[in-house]
Specification:
Length: about 575
């Protein structure tokens, strides 16, 4: 987005509030258009991401989001004074003009850590959701009222056509279905529940499970009503905090949210998705982008689109990936700034069958410069192909010419064929991974995610099959240069609002549409581009507003979906 379309919602100082030594920290941005035409923004103000003191704040704009004022505190909580902190505020406007904020608060005493959600909800700590109301367009607010003893990073309140109010919340559950479950969650997974009010928000008693699947761990769910009684939800994947490369999921209900029988992979990789209908009838989703190049993104699509799974990429410097009619050329450099890595749908576990066929030429490559994970990482160097985590398991081969390789992971082993000839068959006990990727290999070391990463490689064709069992999704995806880039959907359909680094320190966005059709999006960002920033640079954290038209968010037609 151009800088001219951006404005800052927050301040550096607030009269009467003690500014922390490191400056204010902002997160969880919200915006609504009040019935009087003004915009109202809400966010959490604190001392750091893992807050020890927190304020729920609001501000107003009378000029469509260009300038902001009237900053005020709704509520304050701190570990030192109260033994709890505010976590994730979410704001909505209802048809009768009322504004509503739902926010979880978590117990935190001095000296206690900022726990994972699954630990925060355990007895002895505890969370709860609270609701605040405004009947004068956000100028004054009621005292908060507790509505449950769950908390769980709630979603925004959605008003359905029949007047029902609903929001989502996340809780955790133990499972024995995950093989080699990722730490620190181990055998704990997230599941999501929808909470209803049938009396305009006075009481919140009726609930329904929206998603309960340990192979996804759906959380931070956004809701939209597509037609009376027909709902769509967009979830963040909690399994491994998204690091395996799962896309978000889209879930559907045809009975007002009572049951959710259908779910499919989303074409984006969103955390805290804000989903809603535009005046045109199309859907707009804004989100924190994970997995992939970190930052805030937006995508417009139709409710009838069947986009399916779409690959994505970690690509801070787009110039390192060049497409011609003959091949895709990757010229990668040291560190995250020079990295190129493409992500496909991951394997459920070591029992999933993964097959990758690739036509590839390697001009030069450091150890992690040209790699493919077929559920086990294989690296390609100019004179050798080997298992990345067991380099002694490999074979001499001149990769500097065009060759077609086939990698098959099945039955506890990996088989590598070159030009149809089997060259390696190895047991992979302890080497299997969930990731299915190609390009560079991320090997975090001494704070650098992509060491020994320099390479020049050329890719002419790919076919990827991932066969998971019925509790997860399977894909059959193929690519040639005639299809565009492997991540063509990202290039065609998603809009970057702002980049940010690290990935978990941005986003949590919201949006509203003005009477004239303009759109105002807000998020929190630190203005650090992963392609230029270093970890030593100080970050300026703020809430930012973006003023756009729908036409600026609508991109070219989508690429093909994986079958």
């Amino acid at each position: 987005m151009p800088e001219s379309a951006k404005s800052t919602v927050t301040r550096d100082e607030y009269p009467g509030l003690p500014t922390p030594a490191r400056g204010w920290y902002y997160k969880c941005a919200n915006v609504v258009r009040a019935r009087d035409g003004s915009l109202v923004a809400c966010w959490q103000l604190s001392d750091q991401h893992t807050s020890t003191t927190s304020w729920l704040m609001v501000a107003r704009s009378a000029d469509g989001g260009r300038t902001w004022g009237g900053h005020q505190v709704i509520s304050h909580s701190s570990a030192q004074e109260h033994g709890w902190v505010w976590v994730v505020p979410q704001m909505s406007v209802l048809g009768d003009g009322r504004l509503v904020i739902v926010c979880d608060r978590g117990q935190r005493n001095p000296g206690q850590n900022w726990p994972m959600l699954s630990d925060w909800q355990k007895p002895g700590r505890g969370m709860a959701n609270w609701i605040f109301w405004s009947s004068d367009h956000g100028r004054t607010w009621s005292a908060g009222a507790k509505v449950d003893d769950v908390g769980g990073e709630p979603g925004y309140v959605l008003e359905l056509t029949d007047g029902t109010l609903a929001f989502t919340r996340t809780s955790s559950k133990q499972t024995d279905q995950l093989r080699n479950p990722p730490a620190p969650w181990n055998d704990i997974y997230y599941r999501n529940e929808i909470v209803f009010s049938d009396d305009g928000g006075k009481t919140w008693g009726r609930t329904a499970w929206l998603a309960d699947n340990p192979f996804h761990g759906d959380c931070e769910v956004g809701l939209a009503e597509l037609a009376p009684g027909r709902l769509m939800a967009a979830s963040r994947i909690g399994l491994g905090n998204g690091r395996f490369g799962h896309p978000s999921r889209l879930l559907f209900s045809d009975d007002g949210g009572r049951t959710w029988p259908r779910a499919e992979p989303a074409p984006f990789y969103g955390q805290r998705v804000h989903l809603g209908r535009l005046q045109s009838g199309r859907l707009l989703a804004t989100y924190r982008n994970v997995w992939g190049t970190p930052g805030s993104r937006a995508v417009v699509f139709d409710a009838t689109d069947r986009l399916g799974f779409q690959p994505t990429s970690y690509l801070p410097d787009e110039t390192r990936c060049v497409l011609s009619a003959e091949a895709l050329t990757l010229r990668t450099g040291e560190g995250r700034r020079g990295a190129v890595e493409f992500n496909l749908y991951p394997a459920q576990d070591d029992r999933a069958r993964v097959e990758i066929e690739v036509t590839l030429k390697v001009d030069e490559a450091e150890p992690h410069g040209v790699a493919i994970s077929a559920g086990c990482w294989v690296r390609f160097e100019p004179g050798r192909i080997s298992l990345a985590a067991r380099p002694e398991a490999g074979f001499a081969f001149d990769t500097r010419g065009w060759h077609t390789y086939r990698l098959v992971r099945a039955g506890g082993e990996i088989v590598i064929l070159a030009d149809g000839v089997e060259k390696l068959r190895q047991k992979i006990d302890g080497l299997w991974v969930r990731e299915v990727r190609f390009g560079n290999r991320s090997v975090p070391r001494a704070g650098e995610a992509y060491p020994q990463n320099r390479a020049v490689s050329h890719w002419r064709a790919l076919r990827v099959k991932v066969e998971n069992d019925s509790r997860d999704y399977s894909i059959d995806w193929s690519w040639t240069p005639a299809d565009g880039y492997p991540d063509q959907f990202r290039r065609d359909r998603t809009v970057v609002l702002d980049y940010a680094m690290p990935a978990g320190d941005c986003g949590y966005s919201s949006w509203t549409q003005l009477a004239d059709g303009g759109i105002v999006i807000v998020d929190y960002t630190n203005l650090r581009h992963p392609g230029t920033a270093t970890s030593a640079e100080p970050a300026r954290n703020l809430i930012r507003a973006y003023r756009v038209r729908e036409a600026e968010l609508v991109r070219a037609p989508a690429g093909k979906a994986a079958r």
